[in-house]
TrEMBL record:
Gene3D superfamilies linked to this entry: 3.30.450.180, lambda repressor-like DNA-binding domains
Name of the protein in its database record: Transcriptional regulator with XRE-family HTH domain
Domain of life: Bacteria
SMART domains, sorted: HTH_XRE
Annotated Pfam families: HTH_31, MLTR_LBD
InterPro entries with a match to the protein in the record: Cro/C1-type_HTH, Lambda_DNA-bd_dom_sf, MLTR_LBD
PANTHER family: BLL4672 PROTEIN, BLL4672 PROTEIN-RELATED
Length: 287
């Protein structure tokens, strides 16, 4: 299991090495740089922190920086908003919820997912476990009802399910974006052993996941576009939107819609081929 202290050290080094000294207006040095990015001394100067403190952080000596220090590091390293939140989570300085991660959908949210038909929709928790879905999402992706609950996870399906390994046209981008979300979720929920186990399983079982996880990208992506190779509908482009209920902020409502007229026609034909299974064993007739 990776500790947050070790990850903090690796993340700080990773982001320091990504920065271009010239773009930050730092003076050129006569001595050639042996490593890419900024030196620890330069980060310390930009953040107003001692070099020794930076060294100890990057050596994972168990320090817990204050809010002011984290803010200074985030500014010095030019972190994006999602990366800044990730840094705060790693040092456990951001307020956390006290409840356990959701493993079932609230009845009202499950009904909402069903009512969104004919738009494909599903409800997930922060680790991408699928808690509820409507029939159109089943028809578009995979028959979730036929899978054991342990496999009803979007990342696991993308990496491990035989029928989905070639499902996404731009698979690397989809996996990369999923990893960036999981990394943020992992820092925000260090007590979630199931999430830690999922990440470890994916690192061990998929070379691409392991490579992309090591890049330490952090981004919570709430909308976008995917192109899929559906065995019945052919190549289909969909746009997705992710919404977060106020009373259940660790649950994510994902809604798909066709991205163009050709894809809309393909989905209409797909959903018109009889009833499809929704969560809870119900069948949802396309409207």
């Amino acid at each position: 299991m990776i500790s947050s202290t070790v990850e903090l050290a690796a993340f700080l080094r990773n982001r320091r090495e990504r920065l271009d000294p010239g773009e930050l207006g730092l003076p050129s040095r006569r001595q050639a740089r042996r490593t890419p990015g900024l030196r620890r001394e330069e980060v310390a100067e930009l953040a107003g922190i001692s070099v020794d403190y930076i060294v100890r952080l990057e050596q994972a000596r168990g320090l817990r920086p204050s809010v002011d220090v984290v803010e200074a590091l985030a500014r010095a390293l030019r972190l994006a908003p999602d990366e800044r939140a990730y840094l705060f989570d790693l040092v456990q300085q951001r307020p956390r919820g006290t409840g356990k991660p959701a493993t079932t959908a609230a009845p009202s949210l499950a009904r909402l997912v069903a009512d969104l038909s004919p738009r494909p929709a599903m409800l997930m928790n922060h680790r991408y476990d699928i808690l509820a879905w409507n029939g159109e999402m089943t028809r578009l992706l995979v028959d979730f009802q036929s899978l054991p609950p342990s496999q009803r996870n979007v990342m696991w399906l993308c990496l491990m399910h035989p029928g989905m390994r070639e499902f996404y046209v731009d698979r690397e981008r989809v996996v990369r974006e999923g990893i960036a979300h999981l990394r943020a979720a992992w820092a925000a929920h260090p007590e979630d052993q199931a999430l830690t186990d999922l990440i470890a399983e994916c690192i061990a079982g998929d070379e691409q996941f392991a490579r992309l996880w090591a890049e330490r990208d952090v981004k919570v992506n709430g909308r976008g576009r995917k192109v899929v190779r559906h065995p019945e509908a052919g190549e289909v482009a969909v746009e997705f939107e992710t919404l977060k209920p106020l009373q259940d902020p660790d649950q994510l409502l994902v809604i798909y819609r066709a991205a163009d007229e050709e894809s809309r026609s393909a989905l209409d034909r797909l959903f018109a081929r009889g009833p499809v299974t929704a969560s809870g064993g119900r069948s949802a007739e396309p409207r």
